[in-house]
């Protein structure tokens, strides 16, 4: 994808916002390391930060953004509604808590973190109001599979701007990607490195050697060329820099086709496929 030239390259959504294609994920980042990693990422040119209420580090993300001196309007900030807060009234209260911790009066995108049974419809109704009130510029979902998306679309005229799911060559859900693309839902890949559990696969190493890149850079570039937003997580500045150094090469069509055969439905995180 020749248009993807820098971390600030962005993809449009159906809700009049565009999402920087590369972001920093902060899941499991402890307070001090979360603060320093966000600050490092912003200094290195990242403009997309992804957190969540359940991560317990919204305050640190907010402080790092303020201390970076980068204008708030130039940073795409995402947080998420946790399962315990799902439901209409509780979701409305949850966004206010998140905004207070982040030290901002809006987020650029607010996501339902997981498709909780019997609550996700009311949660989405709350997100519609949250967007209407300007507390979130856009709203979307996370860990939603096709049945969950179909249910949502059947009861709401507001289509999610984004669906954030685990996605990498070893969990390459082509049916979900195709469905999201058909409905105008941007797909975002979390755990794009499969939590490091597949980084030593010799097929990745062979490609990395041929392109003069690291194994992690090959996986991140694959997601970008699939048309995904990608949010690798790291707390080390050298890794954060490495993860962003993926805009000066392109994986060939032949190699992309080869990587398409690697899928083995390998999940390293939540499995929402059985949630009804």
TrEMBL record:
Keywords: NADP, Oxidoreductase. The record marks 80 as: Lowers pKa of active site Tyr. The keyword Oxidoreductase applies. This is Aldo/keto reductase. Residues 23-261 form the NADP-dependent oxidoreductase domain. Belongs to the aldo/keto reductase family. The keyword Oxidoreductase applies. One of its GO terms (molecular function) is oxidoreductase activity, acting on the CH-OH group of donors, NAD or NADP as acceptor. The active site is at 55 (proton donor). It holds the Pfam family Aldo_ket_red. It comes from the Bacteria. Substrate binds at residue 113.
């Amino acid at each position: 994808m020749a248009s993807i030239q820098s971390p600030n390259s962005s993809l449009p959504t159906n809700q009049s916002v565009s999402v920087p294609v590369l972001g920093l994920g902060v899941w499991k980042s402890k307070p001090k390391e979360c603060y320093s990693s966000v600050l490092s990422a912003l200094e290195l040119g990242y403009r997309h930060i992804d957190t969540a209420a359940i991560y317990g580090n919204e305050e640190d993300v907010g402080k790092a953004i303020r201390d970076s001196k980068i204008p708030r309007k130039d940073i795409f900030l995402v947080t998420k509604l946790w399962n315990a807060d799902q439901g209409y009234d509780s979701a409305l209260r949850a966004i206010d808590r998140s905004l207070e911790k982040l030290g901002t009066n809006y987020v650029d995108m607010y996501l339902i973190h997981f498709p909780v049974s019997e609550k996700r419809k009311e949660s989405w109704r709350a997100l519609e109001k949250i967007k209407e009130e300007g507390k979130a510029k856009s709203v979307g979902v996370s860990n939603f599979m096709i049945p969950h998306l179909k249910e949502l679309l059947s009861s709401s005229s507001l289509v999610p701007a984004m669906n954030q799911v685990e996605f990498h060559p070893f969990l390459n859900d082509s049916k979900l990607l195709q469905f999201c693309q058909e409905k105008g839902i941007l797909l975002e890949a979390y755990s794009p490195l499969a939590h490091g559990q597949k980084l030593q696969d010799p097929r990745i190493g062979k490609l990395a050697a041929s392109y003069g890149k690291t194994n992690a850079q090959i996986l991140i570039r694959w997601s970008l060329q699939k048309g995904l937003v990608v949010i690798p997580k790291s707390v080390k500045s050298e890794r954060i820099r490495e993860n962003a150094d993926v805009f000066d090469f392109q994986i060939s069509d032949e190699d992309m086709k080869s990587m398409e055969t690697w899928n083995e439905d390998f999940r390293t995180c939540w499995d929402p496929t059985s949630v009804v």
